[in-house]
């Protein structure tokens, strides 16, 4: 017996995982349902891939290329390495290749579900979280990118973010490549080194919100030591070269036309850069024609997105209202969605170019934003608890609950130990029940039931006036046959 | 370049996994939504636990105790063994222990989501599948079991299974224990051996549908060799002892009252057995009072459920209509849901008894049943494809689609290469689109659009009469400003 306690399993989640209860589940499902409806109306079809993929199919596309083997939950099964998906894009690329002869082309699909990251958990940082993606595979035109941006705006509004509370910022990787090319920062003779440096530059730019200009400048140069003393190696650019990149990031002007003009100037001499600027102009014009002006979509050179696989337009949805952070500071809520064009992901499998573009919404961030914005959760449907006064008459109580349900109400019989009536009331209170039904032997003999209005009772306890109490008595007696009608009336049905 | 092909990842699911497309996703979601609504109306709250649990929290409760270390996907992370959940009951037991001071008691919860089994995949057998569970934790009374059975009936009907097409069969583990006790088959002096033998007996009985009487008799005795030559060790009961068990399984009588009388006879002398028979009688009476008679709920001693952890009532929903199996034989569809009372699972964590009971619906089986029953999937919403006649005018086409969507219709612009108009029509066909919108330079100059009715066109191709064609012409011209009104009229909106 002595070793008994140590042999008991611990009742706890693994680190970085959590459980979701009640309204947390239904609110998320309701929000995802509204977003799916927007996607569906745009002609996107649902796709659900399994949680598990082969490691070779997933590839290594997480932002943190410094630790290429970390970031995923992986294990070996009979010689094959399997892993939990870390996003919904890699499985889509696999599907697009696997079913390439059967899917319509272009293939528009949406997907929503959990993804897993084997990263160090932190406050508010979990290792399982939801994503909600929409992608178009097989459409080379930037009209597909413009469609995704417009649809993202519609999805955010359907989720409950008011117009004016968000902005979708658009950039193009080709413009950045053009800038780097013009400035002679990349050495085409050494593609591996070029890719590595380019990756460091991209990730540095992506961190401007968090690190500020000085931090980014350090990462573009020799490197940066953070507050904890950890050193991150930089791209090793000369100071003048770093200044060119910084200038590009600051190229945003008050109007989109001015920004485009500045960018065109910055990439003069680079065919890739000019193509990128043209694409930005086209996207802006297509969105403008649909009424999405600068109040909702803006060209912003500081948006690069950390992922290495983007090849053209990139976009990010930011929430512009302020919230108070952990340390009591007011700051903008920030990014809740992002995406871009990735023309090479399907080619990994097939050897043939397949253009693709899409967006991923961070579901938990968006839910947090709605809560920060004071969105009231949908009023929970009132619950009726039928109490148990006489355990021999359980069948009668269950019949009451069944009658209430048949009338469309939410009702349950108390199923704990009925001996202590106080416990039953405490239970109804903990459940947030609206009404309790009481039928003791006296009531049964007289053919009546007592209907206790728990909300009114709480109001009286909190000091409601006599008038209030008369207008809404905390308990009414009704004929047993009028149970459903009386309950419906009290609940305003 | 020579090794290029071998370095490409294969675009395929790991063995035993599959993807779900379009209606497969939405039909399942719709069915789960209808079931959730039933659970919710009975006072059950949603709970979503993560996919990953510690191996110690999950425990080993899979039916196949012969291979206790198999059946789950597990891996080691920094010393801890983690695993994917193999059902929704083990995580609930963990939650009930972890939050025991915060949850209402009794705690009614429902949960739906994928579970993973590391088993050999086969035709129609996947290693990831959906379950949809409802459980009550903390209610010792069999009224909780009766509630689950009644709710299961309501859930099946909400899912689309007609009354008369299913039956819920109820048994009680205590009755079986009583029978074994009376027959002297279990040796209380050797609990380990007793548990092992009892497990083999349970699993043998559970296979009666598949193995037939002779197969079960072999498993109760020395063991059984299957067609492939594999040998499964039996419980080692003497032939007379095996006959007692076979007699118990066959104790079902035409009426519930007769079955109860037979069972009471079989367990005479065993207190546990008598308790089990009393519980069965109470459940039947409670269900009867709610109108669930023998057409929907039956006491059936052959139901034992394979899982070792059940301690009292067990139940199973069977679909009674016939379907044609792989080999062309007609047979009953069989089980789609099952559950029972497990009073010991939470105690693993806390050391304190916490009674619990619940049911799990096999979602994929139930969907297959609905399809076998000819349930038509909800009519897909008609899709309108706006074709691209002039790629310079993409903004105009996108505006048309946006207008159609604003009127609540499903619409998309063709985003492939627009050069070949035939490809656009082929695409619309593959998408099952209802209408195509065409606006070339001629139409644009005249301020009109062509609206092509693809369903009508297909009917003409299939030989519709001239009258049909006049009543529903395959193509109409409309003023550009009347686009939305005309499309709405054709689609009957």
Give a quick rundown of the structure.
2 copies of one chain form a homodimer. Chain A is of the alpha+beta class. The first copy, chain A, is about 40% helix and about 20% strand.
Strand order of the largest sheet of chain A: 2-6-7-14-13-12-8-11
The CATH superfamily of the largest domain in chain A is identified as Bira Bifunctional Protein, Domain 2
How many β-strand runs of chain A?
19
Annotated CATH architecture of the largest domain in chain A: 2-Layer Sandwich
Domains counted in the coordinates of chain A: how many? 2
Query: Can you summarize the main beta sheet of chain A?
Result: 8 strands, mixed
Give a structural overview:
The structure is a homodimer of 493-residue chains. The first copy, chain A, is of the alpha+beta class and 493 residues long. Chain A is 41% helix and 22% strand. Chain A has helices at residues 4-7, 23-41, 55-58, 89-98, 142-159, 173-182, 191-206, 208-220, 239-249, 256-266, 271-289, 347-350, 363-372, 394-406, 421-430, 441-446, 454-461, 466-471, 483-490, and strands at 20-21, 45-48, 52-54, 74-77, 80-84, 107-116, 128-137, 166-172, 223-225, 231-233, 297-299, 313-324, 330-341, 356-362, 383-386, 410-413, 435-438, 448-453, 475-479. In chain A, helix 5 (142-159) crosses helix 11 and helix 6 (173-182) packs antiparallel against helix 11. Chain A is elongated and about 95 Å long. At the A-B interface, strand 1, helix 2, strand 2, strand 3 and strand 4 of A face strand 1, helix 2, strand 2, strand 3 and strand 4 of B.
